[in-house]
Every structure is written in structure tokens, then in C-alpha cells.
Amino acid sequence: MKQKVDYLIVGQGIAGSILAYRLYKQNRTFVVVDSGLKNSSTYVAAGVMNPLVLKRFTLTWRAQEFIDYNRRFYREMEGFLNIKFFYELPLFKLIESEDEKSFWQHRIKKASLNDFMEEELIKAPSSIHPSANYYLGKVKQTAWLDTKVFLESFRSFLKNNNHLLEEKIDYSSIKKITINRLSLNISFFVKVRLQ
Fold this sequence. Notes:
Blueprint: E1 7-10, H1 14-25, E2 30-33, H2 41-44, E3 48-49, E4 52-53, E5 58-59, H3 63-81, E6 86-88, E7 91-95, H4 98-110, E8 122-123, E9 135-139, E10 143-145, H5 147-160, E11 164-165, E12 175-179, E13 182-186
Parallel strand pairs: 1-2, 2-11
Antiparallel strand pairs: 3-10, 4-5, 6-10, 7-9, 8-9, 12-13
């Protein structure tokens, strides 16, 4: 049976899943084409959400905005899918030298990173390295997304609602066409509705 859709999403990684969810919430028609590879980059990703670049203790671009968005979005998704996969957990940076210890304390004061770094360092447990004098710096507003649970539960939703086409795309079969100076890449099995 042929089906006309407004959107074709190639890949059901994090980006494809978020786009599909947003389209669903806007009552748009779409299909996700995904072969279900278990070694795709999103599937094997660690899922760590961290506002700091840990080498130089600098804030990532638009950190607070993305933290707030992720927190709201993944909680909404957990409610929608009725499953837990988003965990707000602290992240600890291993501080291995006195220089790094001083730099941590310097950066938190100089760069106004109090919302993202705990000022006080914690003595690392001996289980990390029994003979070393290491510390742990606590990074705040971090989280972990269990990507496997997220992707599998959203995939079930897509399947159950006929939004998933489990196919492998042959990229060599994609042809480029131009309509009124608009360039499109169209595969042989995709029918595009132009409005």
C-alpha cells in the first residue's frame, strides 16, 4: 500500500527520533526509514550530557539553554513513552595534579562557573589509584541518557503507529533532480509531494 507523507526521516538516532516526535506532536505525517543497526553512533553513544569542556574547564556553547531544553524534553518523552531513560547525575572529573587542582579553583572563580562546578574538591577514593593523591571535581547539571532504552522504546512507538519502515537505504540509488531551482535528492522508492 502506497502512503503519502509530509516528511521522510532517514535514520532513527537521537536526531531522527526527536524530529519524529516533534512532527507527531504537530500532527504531521511522516515515516522513519531505519534498518535497526545496533552499532550506529547514537545506539552506542555514552549518552552523557555535560556543560563543560573538561580539558580547560570552559562552558560549552549555549550550555544552560541546552541543559534546560534537554531536561524538559526528555522528561516529557519519559511521560509519553511511560519509561525511565533520563537520569540527572553528577559527573566527576579526575584531578591528577596540583596544577590541575589550582586550575580548577582558578576557573570556577574567574569564569563564574559556580552553577556548573563544585568549588570544593573531593579526595578521590583509594580504589581509583591506591598510591596516588588524586581529587575529584564535581560537575553540576549533568545527566545521562540511556540511549538504548530511549531508542528501543521510541522504536516500538514508531512500529506500533506505522511510522517505521525497516529498510536499508541504498545511497547509490539516490538521484538528484532540480525543480524550479530547488535541488532535491530523491530515492527511487520515495514519492515526494511538492506543495
